[in-house]
Specification:
Number of domains: 1
Strand content: under 5%
Number of strands: 0
Low-confidence stretches: none
Mean pLDDT: 85
Order of helices and strands: HHHH
Shape: rod-shaped
Number of helices: 4
Helix content: over 70%
Radius of gyration: 25 Å
Distance between the termini: 15 Å
Largest sheet: none
Length: 127
């Protein structure tokens, strides 16, 4: 005979897994420090790519005026300026990544604990 409470609980757990539960379960495999570190490493690469794309677009937009001023342009100062802007951009980008990763981990950890409690409840129903 089918136990309706078990079926309801299993249905709720399946819905949970389909709507973001898998990510929470996968996040549970990491310690907070490790999860944040992985996200920071990903951001290092994506932030660098984003910076290069932004600089490329700016160069395309201002290419004509830059070519006119190319003879009087001090390349060393320009490279230092671009490096300083890159460091500032990455500082902000990595800071945002750190905050978002910490908040995300905390939310997913709560979701995972709820799921684990439901698993324990389901296990006790089988005993």
């Amino acid at each position: 005979m089918v136990n309706e409470n078990r079926v309801r609980l299993m249905t709720k757990m399946a819905i949970y897994e389909e709507h973001g539960g898998r990510q929470a379960i996968a996040t549970g495999e990491y310690y907070k420090k490790d999860y944040v570190s992985v996200q920071m490493i990903k951001s290092l690469f994506t932030g660098t790519i984003a910076y290069c794309i932004i600089i490329g677009l700016l160069m395309c937009a201002c290419g004509d005026s830059m070519l006119d001023k190319l003879a009087s342009l001090n390349v060393e100062k320009l490279l230092l300026l671009l490096a300083a802007i890159y460091l500032f951009f990455m500082f902000l980008y990595m800071g945002c990544t750190y905050l978002i990763a910490c908040i995300t981990y905390k939310k997913r950890e709560k979701m995972r604990k709820v799921y684990e409690r439901a698993l324990k409840r389901l296990e006790s129903m089988y005993e």
